[in-house]
Automatic annotation (TrEMBL):
This is Saccharopine dehydrogenase. Residues 382-542 form the DUF4166 domain. It comes from Litorimonas cladophorae. Pfam families: DUF4166, Sacchrp_dh_NADP. Residues 3-123 form the Saccharopine dehydrogenase NADP binding domain. InterPro entries: DUF4166 (IPR025311), NAD(P)-bd_dom_sf (IPR036291), Sacchrp_dh_NADP-bd (IPR005097).
Length: 546
């Protein structure tokens, strides 16, 4: 099977070739305006796939051969002004796919459905993150809450990800201009790019959340194509969360200036923004996506996180999955399609599994217990005794035994006394009472007659998707992780009297919950803090009081 990839040495085209480089039945032709770059790209790859470099201008296609598929991975699609590759495919009867993120371009391709049927080929546009992953998230949510009416989609590349010049040029092309399609009250309308902002926290269930980020309205095909398959949708909004955040905010300010006519169009400054983004590639190397949807009965959200350099590979994966399908003899009926109509989670899950990519559902319902809300779909993966422990009721009591070890530093004794930690001892009788409150849960622990309490609640704003535990004036913000059925807690921040305190003074330690061979709930809490050392360690088991 011979596949021509236009833009084959670019970020996404090369990503496709990289994922497919060990398929002996494929010949991949990596094409672009520079033969040297195409040859270099081919030389970087090794495997069973036949790789061929080709110098090619997409605006003047004249091939001496007929490929089985042409993939346009070049862009920016916002600046095409036409569809020369699509026209060539229709004329010569060649199946076509692209990774367009431009709603107008995708719509123009879909309008060619009759011509595609006449030519006997499939035209597939938008075979990329949006709308393919947007639709995947929406399907997962609707399986839980039913048909959704409102959806917000946010994409946040890793701050260390290298963004191609074409990606930045595409953003500059619509910034502050009435070129972005959104679905509002059931109607597709044009509005100004990057001038509307929504905040979201991306958190795959049972994993550490990404920082809470602002997302600015971005151009994407979602608004113009998802309505055909999700008929209940009334509002669709897609945004991008660029990091560093200061650059994101600067782009929003400039875009608002463009919209008001006090700042020139940003298109000529694309190279400057591209260089600036490249100079400030700092921060945690994690990127992700969130799809939040709701209806009158409830709401939920689907989250995806890519670690390290795996995020920039995602836009190419739907095309990779499609090429694998074609290589196996599976081809769509002639016509024009949006990418989400061809590739779904069953096709992409195998591609995700080869990379450090995780995903899952969060259940945004205040009626659920605190830990179940934070863990989302990962809650069901916990050991039964842990699930039972966090299934709050009216004053549920658990009893057992534990060993307690206090820190040796005199300063740690002062902190332990303020919080109310118990004194050292072995086989200490312990009971824990969990009482639901309007805004969380109160956990009261009794260690041999020594009682101390803390309040657990959902984190707010910056600490969304965390659990906040309060010991008097001290607030600890915790990430709740699921690991092979166990629950692990990692401190992410803290404050005293509402005043955030520096990371160098942040308490932490080793805190986890598991289940022993007898099916009992087992806890291990070893709290430590800089300057103080160990504050208190207590570990033991609990069972429901009979």
């Amino acid at each position: 099977m011979k596949v021509l990839i236009i833009g084959g040495y670019g970020t996404f085209g090369f990503g496709m070739a990289e994922r497919l480089s060990d398929e002996p039945e494929l010949e991949l032709i990596l094409a672009g305006r520079s033969l040297d770059k195409a040859e270099t790209a081919c030389a970087k790859l090794s495997g069973a796939t036949t790789l061929t470099p080709l110098k090619l201008d997409r605006n003047a296609l004249d091939l001496a051969f007929k490929p089985d598929l042409i993939v346009d991975a070049s862009g920016p699609f916002q600046a095409y002004g036409g569809s020369p590759v699509v026209d060539y495919c229709l004329k010569h009867g060649i199946p076509y796919a692209d990774i367009s993120d431009d709603g107008a371009f995708v719509s123009a391709v879909l309008a060619q459905s009759k011509a595609a049927k006449t030519a006997g080929i499939a035209l597939i546009s938008g075979l990329s993150t949006c709308p393919v992953l947007s639709a995947i998230g929406l399907r997962e949510i609707e399986a839980r809450i039913g048909p959704a009416t409102d959806v917000t989609i946010g994409i946040a590349p890793s701050p260390k990800a290298e963004l191609g010049r074409n990606v930045v040029a595409a953003v500059a092309n619509y910034a502050g201009q009435d070129k972005v399609s959104v679905l509002r009250s059931g109607k597709i309308v044009k509005t100004t790019g990057l001038t509307e902002v929504r905040n979201e926290t991306i958190c795959v269930p049972g994993k550490i959340p990404l920082p809470r980020l602002p997302f600015a309205l971005a151009d994407a095909p979602d608004a113009v194509v998802l309505g055909a398959d999700f008929s209940a949708l009334r509002n669709i909004w897609t945004g991008a969360g660029t990091r560093p955040i200061w650059l994101h905010r600067l782009l929003v300010i400039l875009s608002k200036g463009v919209a008001r006519g006090i700042v020139p169009k940003l298109t000529p400054f694309a190279d400057i923004f591209h260089r600036a983004r490249g100079l400030f590639r700092f921060g945690i190397d994690r990127g992700g996506m969130v799809v939040r949807a709701s209806n009158t009965d409830g709401d939920a959200s689907w989250h995806l996180v890519a670690e390290g350099d795996h995020g920039p590979r995602i836009p190419a994966l739907p095309v990779v999955a499609f090429i694998r399908q074609m290589a196996e003899g599976v081809t769509p009926v002639a016509g024009a399609y949006s990418g989400h109509q061809i590739i779904g989670l069953p096709e992409l899950a195998p591609e995700f599994s080869k990379l450090d990519i995780t995903y899952g559902l969060q259940f945004d319902s205040e009626s659920l217990p605190v830990y179940e809300q934070v863990l989302g779909s990962a809650h069901g993966d916990l050991h039964p005794s842990i699930i039972d422990m966090h299934r709050t009721g009216d004053g549920r009591v658990f009893v057992g035994e534990c060993d307690v070890t206090r820190g040796r530093n005199p300063l740690s004794h002062i902190v332990a006394a303020i919080v109310g930690f118990p004194k050292s001892g072995r086989n200490v009788p312990v009971s824990v009472t969990v009482v639901p409150k309007e805004n969380g849960e109160t956990w009261t622990r009794n260690f041999g007659g020594k009682t101390f309490s803390s309040h657990h609640s959902l984190g707010k704003k910056k600490w969304a998707r965390h659990v906040t535990e309060r010991f008097g004036p001290i607030a600890i913000h915790m990430a709740i992780l699921e690991e092979s059925g166990n629950l692990r807690i990692e401190t992410q921040g803290w404050s005293i009297f509402g005043l955030p305190l520096p990371r160098v003074l942040r308490p932490g330690g080793d805190v986890f919950e598991t289940q022993d061979r007898q099916g009992r709930f087992v806890f291990h809490v070893d709290l430590k803090a800089p300057l103080f050392g160990r504050l208190c360690k207590y570990e033991g088991w609990l069972t429901p009081e009979t």
